[in-house]
Write a structure and sequence with these properties.
By secondary structure, the protein is an alpha+beta fold. 23% of the residues lie in helices and 37% in strands. It has a domain of 224 residues.
């Protein structure tokens, strides 16, 4: 096991750090491996297997926290780590104090590593990806191409040990797949995507995933714009997830403190409809989703960031919590062993509602259903919350889909949109995981949204 293999090395690093004058110290050790295969026209188009392993030392020197890291995990790195951490601290003049954590009273530790996933052969993985592509082509003659069809999996181990007696270890793995298709009717082309993520490879159904991708593309063929105006909008859960994920940093206390979030000064205020609650749940038993502790060794906990529309807290690590005179929320995050400590959610989502999509369409009557938004990097300002995004979906008349819609731009403000939520769907799902865990949402019925079209 990782901790036993590196136990002597870590103690030597701490000893050398003390010789260099470092006080409180922490070692963060990360190890990971990944597999990915891409299929194109029945053949392997891209195949990769990779692994990483490295160690970071944090140490306090003259009131500053110095960092050093290496991927060479042997005794030749011991002095370099101690020296570099000291030299790094000597040039810092940070006013915000970074601390080494002594440990939480209790941790909800759980073994989430799937040995079953570990035993899946490369042949099985490749054959599954090939089947997924073949099922997509076979679904409908209008499927013109499958631009990308991937299967991948990854595993990771994390060890945090410090001179205050803290020692924590976690290990997890996950598998994922994604297929994108292009449908054509001779005059128009539309794409559709479907994906899955799980700790159990054998829950993946190639035909089901391929069918979903095709059904996300074919109904959009022949889409046209609509007249510009203010429309009631049903935002499909996939579009909600994309927007929600892109805006998740507004809850980051570090950005709030720097004046880079529209939520500065809004704690305790209503920022959304009372129908809306945002939850961060580290204990979701899902592939690589469970987190007992954050990357500073603080015990993670379930929390409502927004409770019935009211902002109750920001995401904090130890440093931002100290600055605000509050407690950390257990959301310290490192992108890798070589990264400094930042902040990220664990599994962050909009709480599921109780309204069927069909019921929301009936309630809307006439309006627009948005199934996809584009341009989030350029068309969204997370400081102001203003957005202007390309979108597509369906024109709704008398509660039914009348025709596909494209070449429209939806614009507004994120907080205004949240306040204008008239109903929350009961069709919740999680999106693909990113560096900050999973993001999830149900569909939302918005009272009105500005739509630019014809």
């Amino acid at each position: 096991m990782l901790r036993m293999a590196k136990k002597d090395l870590m103690e030597k690093i701490f000893d050398k750090g003390r010789e260099y004058g470092l006080k409180d110290m922490e070692i963060y050790l990360g190890k990971g491996s990944s597999f990915r295969v891409r299929i194109h026209k029945g053949e392997i188009d891209n195949y990769s297997v990779s692994s990483t392993e490295g160690l970071s030392l944090r140490g306090e020197y003259n009131g500053q926290m110095g960092y050093a890291h290496t991927s060479k995990l042997d005794e030749s790195s011991v002095e370099m780590l101690a020296r570099n951490a000291k030299e790094n601290a000597e040039v810092l003049t940070n006013e915000d104090k970074e601390v080494i954590f002594e440990g939480s009273p209790e941790y909800k530790l759980k073994d989430t590593y799937s040995e079953k996933l570990d035993r899946v052969t490369e042949k099985e993985k490749i054959e599954f990806a090939k089947e997924m592509e073949a099922k997509a082509y076979a679904f409908d003659k209008r499927i013109e191409s499958v631009p990308y069809c991937y299967y991948g999996d990854s595993s990771g181990e994390t060890l945090i040990k410090n001179t205050k007696g803290l020692e924590l270890f976690s290990k997890n793995n996950m598998a994922y797949c994604i297929v994108n298709v292009v449908a054509s009717d001779g005059n128009d082309k539309k794409s559709g995507t479907a994906y899955r993520c799980s700790g159990d490879f054998y829950t993946f159904n190639a035909e089901e995933i391929a069918r979903e991708a095709c059904e996300n593309a074919i109904p959009l063929l022949g889409g046209k714009s609509v007249k510009s105006g203010s429309y009631p909008v049903l935002m499909d859960r996939e579009a909600v997830i994309d927007l929600f994920s892109a805006c998740s940093d507004i809850f980051n206390a570090e950005l709030v403190q720097k004046g880079l979030s529209l939520l500065k000064g809004k704690l305790g205020e209503a920022i959304a409809s009372e129908k809306i609650s945002f939850i961060d749940d580290p204990f979701i038993d899902m592939a690589a989703g469970y987190r007992a502790f954050d990357d500073e060794g603080v015990a993670c906990r379930y929390k409502k960031i927004v409770d019935k529309g009211v902002l109750t807290t920001y995401f904090h690590n130890l440093k931002t919590a100290l600055t605000d005179g509050t407690e950390t929320t257990g959301n310290a995050y490192r992108a890798s062993y070589s990264s400094s400590i930042s902040i990220a959610p664990t599994n962050f989502y909009i709480e599921n509602g109780d309204t069927d999509v069909a019921e929301m369409l009936n309630r809307m009557g006439t309006g627009i259903m948005i199934t996809e938004i584009e341009g989030l990097h350029a068309g969204l300002n997370t400081v102001s919350g203003d957005f202007s995004l390309s979108a597509r979906g369906f024109y709704i008349k008398n509660g039914k889909k009348e025709r596909p819609v494209e070449q429209i731009t939806v614009s507004g403000n994120y907080l205004t949109l949240l306040k204008d939520v008239a109903a929350v769907g009961n069709d919740f799902k999680f999106g693909m995981p990113d560096g900050g865990g999973y993001k999830g949402a149900p569909s939302l019925l918005i009272e009105k949204l500005s739509v630019a079209g014809e």
